[in-house]
Amino acid sequence: MQVNYTTAEEPDAPSAEKGRMLFAGETTFVKGVVAMDGLPPPDRMEVCFAGRSNVGKSTLINALTGMKALARASNTPGRTQEINFFTAGEEHYLVDLPGYGYANAPLPVVEKWQRLLKQYLSGRQTLRRAFVLIDARHGVKKVDDEIMSLLDSSAVTFQVVLTKADKVKEAEREKILTQVKDALSKHPAAYPEIVVTSSEKGWGIPTLRAIIATLE
């Protein structure tokens, strides 16, 4: 069966309000985890954010929460090798996965993180959705395909979030969206809506908030 991939529309008023309320409260850093035995108790719903280095993941998390310094942005690929947990409201965890595709990280460090990532994705029952961030200037790269395949095999539903959409003209953005949709057609775990965002302009932020707040 062919899946029709679309661009997520703006949420209706009740969903938008639910999203606003979720992120209106305090968002706090819980801990950084380097091994499975360090994970916090699975006592609330969680969503995770994955993306290659410099895709704008920390900036997006900061935009969602309205806290400029919550997630640390780094220009050094592979610098942070922790899974970082944040609370959102009383019932959600936001989980920030380290950037992948880092060329400068030592191979043993990369392999250790990949093992931890696989264990987390396959063993975390409270994980409701993974958001895979794709840079609107570059589209899906080989390393993105690899993480999507890992999510397929882990049976974790993932949704693509296009970042930095303000950095490309509309015609180029449409070309990238077509390329992303073609790539997603190969991944059974892909959710059929793509969220187009710009952390700088605020594009798509209410939509993404509403999606997270209305997950069951």
Secondary structure elements and pairings:
Elements: E1 6-7, H1 13-24, E2 27-33, E3 45-51, H2 57-65, E4 83-88, E5 92-96, H3 107-123, E6 127-135, H4 142-153, E7 158-163, H5 170-184, E8 193-196, H6 205-213
Helix pairs in contact: 1-6
Structure description:
There is one protein chain. With 216 residues, the chain is α/β, with parallel strands linked by helices. The protein has six helices and eight strands; from the N terminus they run βαββαββαβαβαβα. An eight-stranded mixed β-sheet has the order 1-8-7-6-3-5-4-2, with helices on both faces. β7, α5 (170-184) and β8 form a beta-alpha-beta unit. α1 crosses α6 (205-213). The longest helix is centred in the middle third of the chain and has 17 residues, at 107-123. It is globular.
Structural class by helix and strand composition: alpha/beta
The SSE order reads EHEEHEEHEHEHEH
Largest sheet: 8 strands, mixed
Radius of gyration: 16 Å
Low-confidence stretches: 74-79
The separation of the N and C termini measures 25 Å
Strand content: 15-25%
Notable characteristics:
about 220 residues; alpha/beta; eight-stranded mixed β-sheet; 8 strands
Summarize the structure.
The protein has 216 residues and is of the alpha/beta class. The chain has six helices and eight strands, in the order E-H-E-E-H-E-E-H-E-H-E-H-E-H.
